[in-house]
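Residues determine shape. Next comes a sample protein:
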Amino acid sequence: MKLTTIIFGLLLVHGLSFGANNFNGNEPNAKGAIYGKIYDLSTKQPLSYVSVGLLDQENKTVTGGLTKEDGSFILSKVPHGKYHLIVQFVGYSKLQKEVEINSKTSKIDIGDIHLEASVEELDEVEIVGETQLIENHIDKKVINVSKAMIANGNSTSEILNTLPEINVGADGSISLRGDNNVRVLLDGKPSQLDIGQLLQSLPADAIEKIEVITNPSSKYDPDGLSGIINIVTKKDALKGLNGNFNLNAGSNNKYSGYLGLNYRVSKFNFFAQTYMSDDEWDNTREMTRTFEDENINKFYQTENMNENSGYSMYKGGFDVFWDSTNTTTLSVQKWQWKSNSLSDYNGFHIDDNDQIVSTEYQRGRNYNLGGGYNFNINHRKDLKNGELEVDLFANTGEAEFTPENAYKQGEDWVPLNRNGNNANWFYGSFQTDYNQTINENSSFEAGYKGEVLKAKLDIENINYVSDDSLIYSYPYESQIHAMYGSYSLKLNKTRIKVGLRGEVAHMEGKLDQNAVTDTSFVIDYASLFPSIHIKQKVGEKSTFGVSYSRRIKRPDVMQLLPSEMSSNPKSVVIGNPGLQPSYTNSMELSYNYMGTGKVSVNAAAYMRHSTNIIREVLDYREETDVTITTFANLGESMTGGVSLSSDYKMLNWWSWNGSLDLYYLDISDENQELTIPVEGSPLNWSAKINTKVTPMKGLTLQLMGRYIADKYDAQRITQPAYSMDLAIKKSILKNKGSVNFKINNLLYSGELRTVYGNGFQEFVNYQQESPVYRVSFSYAFGGQFQGRQKRKLSSGGGL
């Protein structure tokens, strides 16, 4: 396990307390001393703040302390006698030695002690390339992006789009292994805003790592049919006063920055962070709608959109190391998000002879603004051969979404309609997790998680043409209670983890009495989610794995809203309160190979069978000449695929890494119009490649390319797309700072897709602003990075 974290104390045996026994001892007949150094067995690096204790023959504490930064320790003024020397550190197997102090051996040099990662870790850290650190755990893959060149100045969405198995659409939608039904978390917490839009505004400089969990164990929420993507923000914790900051600027008014400060003194660790972004984008879109009925003219529309999006966050908190067994972390975060846009639409109705019959000019504005606070408190108690952790999180916020449309009459813009939506919510979660090491080869874990969401949406729909309006409210509430347990076992080179999670859930919502029709819904269900993970190490370089999990996709609050929301003059979205959860059974075979520093390979073959799948469904409303987007439970789907990623260091100054994803999707539904179009193929694939060259010390060039072949899903086909980015980095100020220059979308195809509806087709060509030029400056100051104490329950996020 790569250690960059301060662990301030760990209980040696139940009842041990260093606060009651002075480090130097106070016995009047003390004559001896015991000293040595503690190292990590795999990395050979010294371990600081390791608990070292001395117990007598009755297992009573004599003295104890913590190792220094160089891993050294000394227990002085020890009385003559026989003792148990106990060395224990979180994430490592406990070590015990028998020692004796007498007149002949009053000073004992234990020498170098090497601690081995415990069964709780079950996996080594594997390094893939110099810019990404991949940790292959038994139930997840962790990708470190904090040092990636592409991170400086870009958004989190752009970072995700460079990673294997993940693709981000032009609208910000995120898919994992080809499926948009993925659970995306921020610091382990869900967002109450559109996560795709949020990540397009969140600066990547604030991201430490990204966890990709395709078959989560029972400890994790089972949401997301294709898995979980957990985005972990930076949590600096440096000894003394330390910090780092980034400043970034891009073409066409794109700015972002990050600042992290930390100060550690005695038993306290204070931290503060802030990051912001403010971007402007000029994008274009073309839409052509044709009909099977020859009596209906086809419609062609162009859209020129100017969008301004931004995100800001201010976070502060502290850790308190009460003693060697108790640590409390408290943090408060204030955040604000915006996404405003102005679009001009030119529409043309065209007859069979390609002659323009009529024209229409419309304008759409979207004012979106949200803000709120996050509160988090986490306490960790180290027990004898175990650990107890409690996490309490609350998020409260409000947001305004106001799209309004107008049409041009002569030289004037006449209001057409307006949707005013004001939302407020409270989300809270409580989780407690207990794990116990049974012996050096086995452990178990159990826990409870409860979460509640209470939200209210006040809606005002105004139609200026017919001079009428609808005003109503949409209260919504959901509760989920879960209990889980897992057992881990290590048999030689085989690691096994089995688990079971049980959940009961309740969701309800309604439109109030002022609505045109009263619509209410209640969804109650209970579910079991088993999981199993097995990994077998072959030799020193290869690992094979097999895993299974059952998962769920719950309809979200907006998918259930039975009210029309107009995103532009020709498109309306309406929810479906009759949606039910979708379930999937997922199996995966994996292979990991770590060479001698030059080659590494990660491969997986997987299969998912999903029932009652939730998909977007498009239809056309002739009387108002708009397309309707809603959501429906279709039949079942079968997905199978393979993914391959590899890193190859050709020379000391030249390295490559790339990925290939190939998957098969088949959707079965009684309504064949909602499945994959007849001319489509169920086979989809994508590829990414990244090469990095270091022509001279301190100078690095990086080229990144992506290609997505034809993509097929219910009712739609997306045509092939490609893009390429270039980055140059120069280290300065004795490697404490760096200057980066990047070109995003140096080559870019845009996104083209065709939707096949009932009696009509829509072809859309979306072009994002390109190319985009960025320059950034990064600087770090202070002492050696130590990190805050590792916590198993993620904290601090969720918007």
User: Anything to note?
Assistant: The chain has a mean pLDDT of 84. The chain has three helices and 45 strands. The radius of gyration is 29 Å.
